[in-house]
Amino acid sequence: MLFRSTSTCASEHLLAVEKVSCVYGGFKAVDSVSFELQPRELLGIAGTNGAGKSTLFAAIAGQQRASAGKIIFDGTDLTALEPYQRARLGLVRTFQIPREFKSLTVHENLLAGAPNKEGEQLFAALVNTQARQQRERERELSEKADSVLEFLNLAKVRNVPALNLSGGQKKLVELGRVLMLEPRCILLDEPFAGVNPVLIDQLSEHIVTLNQQGIAVILIEHHLQALKRLAKRLIVMDRGSILAQGDPQSVLDNAQVQVAYMGGVA
């Protein structure tokens, strides 16, 4: 299968977040958070608005510099690396509000997410076969993008400008772009927000399939019951810290979690 991860993990954990804090002025959006992600794991992170979930994701993916702590991915310290460097290692993320290229078609959006094999192009130029190599590379990427679109049930809108897509389709396009990078771990930031129930079911199926094929997933979602159906392990954050973690049902039954959600768990 196209998306199957065949890489082996050089360290005991694929991802280790060690006492990470993010401070804005005197406000701690993330307060000494630690957890580990196993290879091929599907982990859920939940919390009410302002709990620090998206800030934590930004720190892991590199959009936000951690004020303290370390982030280790397969034995590599990511703390000082830029987002594109983390992506090259196989750690990628999506955003709660999709960031599609509105004027490009769906197919072109996926091609925009493909890695640039500059080294291959340089070698091709040296042996005077640059044009042929470039055409072959473009053909391979186009075929890969089409395979991703087929997997995501987006083939029918291949040539539609992203501007004209529904909210749920834009979420799928963003997922497609990160799949072009052949990730080992995907951070999904509220993929179900603003999506109709039919597309939520489709997104859920795609997430489970990708995880079964070897891609680790961390899924942020506001609604605990939605996470319960997908994640084998659940972390709940509150005011920047981890409030509870464990198997989803135990977390849902936690009295502190129920108080934090003001009855929204049941």
Secondary structure: elements and pairs:
Blueprint: E1 15-24, E2 27-37, E3 42-46, H1 53-61, E4 68-73, E5 76-77, H2 83-88, E6 91-93, H3 106-112, H4 118-126, H5 130-151, H6 167-179, E7 185-189, H7 197-212, E8 216-220, H8 224-228, E9 233-238, E10 241-246, H9 248-252, H10 255-260
Parallel strand pairs: 3-8, 3-9, 6-7, 7-8
Antiparallel strand pairs: 1-2, 1-4, 4-5, 9-10
Question: What does this molecule look like?
Answer:
By secondary structure, the chain is of the alpha/beta class. The protein has two domains: 181 residues, Rossmann fold; 63 residues, no CATH class. 37% of the residues lie in helices and 22% in strands. The strands form two sheets. A six-stranded mixed beta sheet has the order 6-7-8-3-9-10, with helices on both faces. Strand 4 and strand 5 form a beta hairpin. Helix 3 runs parallel beside helix 6 and helix 4 packs antiparallel against helix 5. The protein is globular. About 4% of the residues have low confidence.
Q: Please identify which CATH superfamily of the largest domain we are dealing with.
A: P-loop containing nucleotide triphosphate hydrolases
Structural class: alpha/beta
Largest sheet: 6 strands, mixed
Which stretches of 5+ consecutive residues score pLDDT under 50? 117-126
Helix/strand order, N-terminal first: EEEHEEHEHHHHEHEHEEHH
- CATH domain class of the largest domain: Alpha Beta
CATH topology of the largest domain: Rossmann fold
Mean pLDDT: 87
Sequence of strands across the biggest β-sheet: 6-7-8-3-9-10
Number of strands: 10
What is the total domain count? 2
Euclidean distance between termini CA atoms: 38 Å
- Quaternary state reads single chain
- How many helical stretches? 10
So what's the overall shape? globular
Helical content band:
25-40%
